[in-house]
Request: fold
Amino acid sequence: MKRGRLAAVIVLGWVGAIAWLLAREYRPSRTSVLAEAALSLPPGATYYALSLGSEQIGFASSTVDTMADSIRVEDLMVLEVPTLGQVHRTEARTQAMLSRQLQLGSFNAVLHGDLGQFAARGQVEGDSVLSIQVESGAAPEKMRIRLTEPIVLPGLLPLQVTFGERVRVGGRYRLRMFDPLVLQQRDVEIRITGDSTFVVPDSAAFDSTTGRWVAARWDTVRAYRVEQQMAGLALVAWIDEVGRIVRATSAVGFTMERSAFELAHANFRRRPAGRDLATSGDLIRETAIASNARLPDRALTMLRVRLGGVGLGGFDLSGGRQSLSGDTLTVRVEPDTLLQANFQIPAPPSQFGPYMRPELLLQSDDPRIQAQARQIVGRERSPRRVAEQLNRWVHDHLIKAITVSVPSAVQVLESRRGDCNEHTVLYVALARSLGLPARTAAGLVHVEGRFYYHAWPEVYLGDWVAVDPTFGQFPADASHLRFTVGGLARQVELIRLIGRLQLDVLQSEP
Reply:
C-alpha cells in the first residue's frame, strides 16, 4: 500500500473514532431524553366517566405526584356492571412508583370483586427481574419474571408514548406491557393515526333544580389518536400532549371520557334512588352471538360451524374432540373408548408434569384443596371415575352466580359460589391435587339460541376430554367450542372475537 493511501486510512480511522466518541459523549441517550421530557409532566388528578352504551356505569381517576427522584401514579376504577339482571360492583386500584426516567420501580394492584380481594405487588430488581407477590384468599404466592427490556403497566402506556417516543402522526412504536390482573407481559404495537381537538368539561356547578352537577366551563384540548394492538386485541384512545387520556373505547363497548370530578364522580354517586342499572343493558347478553339455526334443547354429540369475521391464527381450535378445516370447525363428543385412561392416579409426572403442578391461583398444593379432593374420591384411583366424581361434586356444591373477580381455587372453595370461571378453577385444582392431569379451556357454548363466552376444564383420559362442572356435563356436549387453553392470560384473547366473530351453524346431531 502506498504511503499516501496508508495515511488516508489512518486519518479516516482517527476521524471516525473521534466522531464515535463525540456521539457517545454528547448524543443524549433515551434515558436522558425521558428524564428531560418527564420534567414537563404536571402533577394533578384527571377524572373520567365510564359508560357502557349510553349509560354511565362507573368512574375513574388518574393522579400523578412528582417528587425529586421519583413519580407516583395512582389509578382508580369503579364499575357497576349489569349482567343477567344483576349489578356487580368492582373496584380496581393501582399505584405505581416510577423513576424520573419513567422506568417502573414497583407497583401495588388491588381488585375488590364479588368473591373478595385480589392483590398483586411487584418490585423490579435491577433491570432484569420482576418479583411479584399475589394474595387471593390463600397464603401469599410468589413468582419471578425474567425481563429482557423495561416493562409498562397498562395505565402508564399513554405516559410512555407521550414522553418516551417522538409522538407524531404516522409514528409506530412497540412497548412491553405487564398486566398485574393476568400476571403476564405482552408486546403492544402502537400507531399514531391522527390528531384532533376536543372540548372537555373543565369545571362544574351544582344545579339545584335537577339536583345534579352541570358543566360550568370548558377546555379545548389537542389530542393524538392512538391505536393499540396486543395479541389481536384492539383499543383506540385519544391522548393529549402530557400523556393523559381524553377519550378511549374498547372492543366490549366500554367508553372512557375525561370530565370534571363532579360530573364523573359526584353525579354517578347521586344518581336517582331506585334507578335500576340492571335494566339499562347487559354485558353478557350484548356480547353473545345469535345462532343462525335453532339447535335442539338436548345435548349435542356433534356440531359443525363456519367461523368468519376474525383471523383464527393463535387460537387452540384443533386437537382432541375438535378439528378445523379452513374456516369450518367440527366438534364431536368423545366416545366412551376415549374415556379410559391407561394409567392409575397419580399419573406419571414425567408425561403430564405441566398439567399436574400448582400454578398461581390454582393452589393444588394447598392443604384445604388436597383434603377436599381426598374426601370427594376416597380411595378411588380410576381416572375416569375420579374425573366424574369431581365434576359432580363441584356442580352440586357451588352456587351458580355471575361474579366479577380474579378467581382463586382456595377462595372459591371457601365461598362455594361463582360462575364458569370459578367452577373451572376449583375443578382443575382439585384434579391436579390428586394427580389427575387437568387444564382450563375457554371459548363459546350454546344456550337457548345464543353462543355465550364460557370456560370449562379438560382432563386427560387417553386424550384431552372436555367436562363441564357448571352445567354438570360429563363429558361436555358438542356445543362447547374451544378457542383457548390456559388461564386468564389466554382467556383475555377472546375479547378480539366480541363484535367481530361470525358463526354459522352448518350441522348438528343431538
